[in-house]
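Two quick folds needed for the group meeting slides. Do the first one here.
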Amino acid sequence: MLGGVVDDVRVNDRLTIPAAELAWRFSRSSGPGGQGVNTTDSRVELSWDLAGSALLPPMLKERAAERLGARLVQGVLTVTASEHRSQLRNREAAAARLAGLVASAIAAPPRVRRATRPSKGSVERRIAEKKRRGETKRNRRSYPD
């Protein structure tokens, strides 16, 4: 961000989407803004052509396309922001939203969980506690004389 205007979008430490690959559209926003909402183009749409970008290596591009499949329209990822009254804050919000989406889309898959069995001692303790609890409840019962 330079002088209050969003330039490049920083996704993570190693990846920054250059401003040349971003497309901005502005329109009138519904919501807060009073009388100004009728005259100010504060709603922001930020688009990035994932499929046409040479920024990502093929493997990451494939992973991102797979994870963002429902959000992509002909390979283009679009985010909107209209929650703020000013266009500048909406531009910042849209850039942050795009960065978050791309970061989560290209993140490495989580490690596979290896199934483990509970230890013999923990099983015995659990069953002993269940028996104690049942005995406590059984002692609360009242039997007719």
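Then this one, please, same format:
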Amino acid sequence: MCRMIQWLFFDIGSTLVDETIAYRHRVADMMDATGLSYDEIYHTLLRYYRLGQKGDKAAAQKYGLTLTPWHSEDEVPYPDAEDCLRRLHQSFHIGVIANQEPGTEERLRRFGLLPYIDLIVASAEEGVAKPDPMIFQIALKRANCEPEHAVMIGDRLDNDIAPANALGMMTVRIKQGFSRFAKPQQAREKPHITVCSLEQIAELFGQ
């Protein structure tokens, strides 16, 4: 399998980067706007994620709110992120396909991950966002890589796994963040492989 793979593409949020504190910040902001308790909003958000939806967005709609700002300053890389990318970069090209606010490259540099990443394709800079297949096609074209020689690694069944499957990429779901609770709702959302950590990904690809 690994002999056929040339590129490993990663999502960022809840894949390379831990968003736990940022989500807590958003729930606290929503609580201030509604008068509801933290636990009420958190459990609403969690319920939507279990259904495979974007829980914070769905919760905001439920309460009639504009989604509160995302605090990217609260994000931190997972403890095993740098080691995973360093090990994999010895044998594979590493890319990013992610829905991100402007400044993705600078954030990855700040996290210490940029030296191991060969290509960044992010929604803010491209003007197209996952699950639109176009953002995956842009990445594959720039990488000069056919889908069958690429892997998409991400936490979201709807944004990462389903569109990559449709293009013929190998898919790896990493069960981190709120999306770990979601279950595939249809065949196209079923990943080829499921793991629970970046360390497992490094082991999976033989590094």
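Slide caption for protein two: The beta strands are 7-10, 17-18, 76-77, 93-98, 119-122, 150-154, 170-174, 193-195.
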